[in-house]
Amino acid sequence: MKIVTWNINGVKARLEAATAYLRQADADVVCLQEIKSVDEGFPREAFEELGYTVATHGQKGFNGVALLSKVGLEDVTRGLPGEDADPQARWIEALVPAGATMVRVASIYLPNGNPIGTDKFTYKLAWMRRLEAHTRTRLAEETPLVLAGDFNVIPDRVDAKRPDAWGGDALFQPESRQAWRALTHLGLTDAVRACHPGPGVYTFWDYQAGAFQKDDGIRIDHILLSPQAADRLVEAGVDRAPRGGEKPSDHVPVWIELA
After folding, report:
1. Which of 150, 169, 190, 221 is catalytic?
2. Which strand (E) or helix (H) includes residue 4?
3. How far apart are CA 37 and CA 14, in angstroms?
4. Residue 88: is it exposed, middle or buried by C-beta count within 10 angstroms (0-12/13-18/19+)?
């Protein structure tokens, strides 16, 4: 089973690039973030033509997440539990068949949190506490769990070309990284780091100042695996090619293969 996550930065603006990539990537399950579309406006037909079942949790103009699956979707849940009044569309999860078993996959668009010292940063940290609590619940079920998406966290200095340049950003604050560690210390495996422990692995390059051409990137798109899922990990990687295409997203796809 191949699972891909991609912050598409506007599904309608990137539709041609997305479908072209998925034709060659041959992914079984796709997690999209920042679709910037209400549910009824999502161009599902383009993905259904590629063989995908589509589930969305959309929002007008910004945010929004989606799950695409060639193997079916069951028990679809929209919205991260823990705060019923939260209006932001940042979480969708479902069970997908994987041979004789099921795998639970979540598409995540974690809050950015900037600027520091505002309600946005408070919301980011509160959201991460909710994520940790919900992950504990899912881990107790012992179903293979895949948390995939744009976490808006730079976990360590090796995950940025110029880490000192991010010292004032919410993505690299001690509180954000501590919340990331609290999550991973539940027993989750960072799939990309498990397969590629060295420097130079990035998933985001700003549109400004030729960041992609200079490889001035950061790694903020992640796939975390429960022990049951990590036992099946075959390979993981980052597909940089879409960033060099026409009208690209500022993020690139991240993928895993599970046995």
Report:
1. 150
2. strand 2-7
3. 12
4. middle
Q: Which of 171, 192, 167, 169 is nearest to 180 (CA)?
A: 171
CATH 3.60.10.10 given to domain 2-258: yes
pTM recorded for the entire structure: 0.98
**Count of CB atoms within 10 A of residue 178's CB?**
12
Give dist(CA 93, CA 158) in Å, integer. 30
Provide the 8-state DSSP code for 63.
Answer: -
Question: For this structure, is 28 an active site residue?
Answer: no
What radius of gyration do the chain's Cα atoms show?
A: 17
The phi, psi pair for 27, rounded to 5°, reads: -85, 145
Q: How many CB atoms lie within 10 A of CB 225?
A: 26
Of 21, 52, 109, 202, which one is the catalytic site residue? 109
Chain centroid to Cα 3, Å, comes to: 11
Distance, in Å, from the CA atom of 120 to the CA atom of 132, rounded to the nearest integer, reads: 18
Are 153 and 171 within 8 A, CB to CB? yes
Let me know if 206 is a catalytic residue. no
Q: What is the largest CA-CA distance in the chain?
A: 49
Counts for the chain of helices (H) and strands (E), in that order: 6, 12
Tell me the pLDDT tens digit for each residue of 88-143: 999 999 999 998 899 999 999 999 999 999 999 999 999 999 999 999 999 999 99
